[in-house]
Specification:
Layout: H1 18-35, H2 41-48, H3 52-80, H4 82-101, H5 106-134, H6 137-168, H7 173-176, H8 178-192, H9 218-241, H10 246-268, H11 282-298, H12 301-311, H13 317-323, H14 325-343, H15 348-368, H16 379-402, H17 409-440, H18 448-480
Length: 505
């Protein structure tokens, strides 16, 4: 099913690890770029004169493009070649990074971040199937262990790396640093990574009805992209200009219309991006909700914490990056030390309990944070949230695979990762609206104490929302997900999927 062009994997000997280097490097880059921007936001605002809404879009549009294009990129990779699409994604990611680094204003930066997210979708959709094609047996287990470890490390390193580059070079360096690294990844990929295809490796013809383009659900992809984009835009615009403003209503109405079109298309096309019948399975539907709500509750508020520790507490970009690392480090340790045992439990337990811990972790700073608080006040909550993320996240993808029929495993894995990225994008939009509302009430000439009070008010509001959302999602999973739902091959290497999503990472 996932054979390479020559019917062979990577060559024997030490050289067999070059595909792992190329694929892991690309995966690390695309994941780091989700969080590397956090520590640079205050400097970006100063350098480009960017508004708070523009900063939201700088963070949000990358995840939005990644979510919108992930499933269709997986379908395209199966048909046209995973290595080919991976290299194209790396090239697009590099060019967009260059545009980000040279951006003269916030509008260009946001547009370039959207293109960067499109390249990241192509990279994310192909890296796992490429590893599956390159390695067999014990080597495959080693490869996925290294790949999964770097995925977790990216979340921990991102804010600190962003802080270092911003403080000691320039905020533009957080984007420009991608250029030499993507060049290395492309060079190794072209020389060492074997090509692989999906189920229809020879269906590459330009004849009418036989074109591989006709095998991709373009109408569904377009409708989903419009729905996600319009919803995010409407949420941000509503917070800025009011919920009854014409543009807000048009955007939200467009999102509803696009969703209806998506449902109609998916019911009629032969090869849908998402089989809507899967959502009629209670366990699968609850897991998709958990994926979206976990990502929305656990991570977006860190963006606004980063603004507080630098703009109010006066921390440097490096110190600001270090202030939020307890969450990522705890998550990484829990996943590394307990991941195999977590896979052996009924999935509703680690996922549900993990979500409850994320909720408690968000509510702790809500209860403890005050006007005189320092960054250390965040540590208990970030640590508890990290414990919850490390407990829930390794099981979420494999549980989603287990809740779907075997022939829909690739679609299920693509869907859960799409919902995760969409949750992050919508979380930034919703929490940013709440946070901005707290700041808008502060006069421009307000004292430092008044500004600090406004930031704390905004942070406690968004942490309350994040905590309640995570608690509700945890209860939903514990109540709905059936005890028999298990992922394929617990403790083994993830199954290949058309989305490039790892099962259990």
């Amino acid at each position: 099913m996932h054979s390479n062009q020559n019917g062979r994997g990577a060559p024997a000997g030490p050289g067999r690890w070059w595909p792992l280097v190329a694929i892991t490097l690309g995966n690390f880059l695309l994941l780091v770029d989700v969080t590397i921007v956090n520590s640079a936001l205050p400097r970006i605002a100063d350098g480009l004169g960017a508004s708070f809404t523009a900063l939201q879009w700088v963070m949000d549009v990358y995840a939005l493009a990644l979510a919108a294009l992930l499933m269709v990129a997986g379908s395209a990779a199966d048909l046209f070649g995973r290595r080919r699409l991976y290299v194209a994604g790396l090239a697009l990611f590099a060019l967009a990074s260059l545009a980000c680094g040279l951006a003269p204003d916030a509008g260009v930066l946001v547009a370039a971040r959207a293109v960067q997210g499109a390249g990241a979708a192509a990279m994310f959709a192909t890296n796992t199937p490429l590893l599956m094609a390159a390695y067999q047996g014990r080597d495959r287990g080693v490869a996925f262990g290294v790949w999964g470890g770097t995925s977790g490390a990216a979340a921990a390193i991102g804010p600190v790396l962003g802080g270092l580059l911003t403080e000691y070079v320039d905020w533009r360096a957080i984007f420009l640093v991608n250029l030499p690294l993507t060049a290395v990844a492309v060079w190794i990929t072209l020389r060492r990574v074997p090509e692989s295809y999906g189920d229809l490796p020879h269906a590459r013809t330009n004849s009418v009805g036989g074109s591989p383009l006709s095998r991709i659900d373009w109408p569904g992809a377009a409708a989903f992209t419009v729905c996600a984009g319009a919803l995010t835009y409407g949420l941000m615009r509503g917070g800025e200009r009011g919920w009854t403003e014409a543009g807000t209503l048009a955007a939200l109405g467009g999102a509803v219309l696009a969703l209806l079109v998506f449902v109609v298309v998916e019911r009629r096309v032969r090869r849908p991006l998402l089989d809507l019948g899967l959502l009629r399975r209670p366990s699968f539907a609850a897991l998709m909700a958990a994926a979206l709500l976990l990502q929305a509750a656990a991570f977006p508020y860190l963006t606004f914490v980063g603004l507080w520790v630098q703009n109010v507490l006066g921390l440097s970009p490096v110190q600001g990056g270090l202030a939020v690392t307890p969450m990522a480090l705890t998550s990484l340790l829990v996943g590394a030390l307990g991941g195999r045992k977590l896979q052996q439990l009924a999935p509703q337990l680690p996922i549900g309990v993990g979500l409850l811990l994320v909720g408690v972790g968000a509510l702790l700073p809500f209860a403890l944070l005050g006007e005189g608080s320092g960054w250390a006040t965040l540590v208990p909550g970030l640590t508890v949230s990290g414990l919850g993320i490390g407990t829930a996240m390794p099981v979420l993808v494999s549980a989603s695979l287990g809740a779907a029929p075997p022939q829909r495993a690739g679609m299920a894995s693509g869907a859960v990762n799409t919902f995760r990225q969409l949750g992050y994008a919508l979380g930034i939009a919703v929490l940013g609206t709440v946070f901005a509302d707290a700041l808008h009430g502060t006069p421009s000439a307000a004292s430092r104490r008044a500004v600090g009070a406004a930031y704390v008010s905004g942070l406690t509001d968004i942490m309350l929302i994040s905590g309640l959302v995570a608690l509700a999602a945890g209860v939903l999973v514990l109540a709905v997900v059936r005890r028999g739902t298990t992922g394929p091959g617990a403790g083994s290497a993830p199954a290949p999927t058309r989305s490039g999503a790892p099962a259990g990472v």
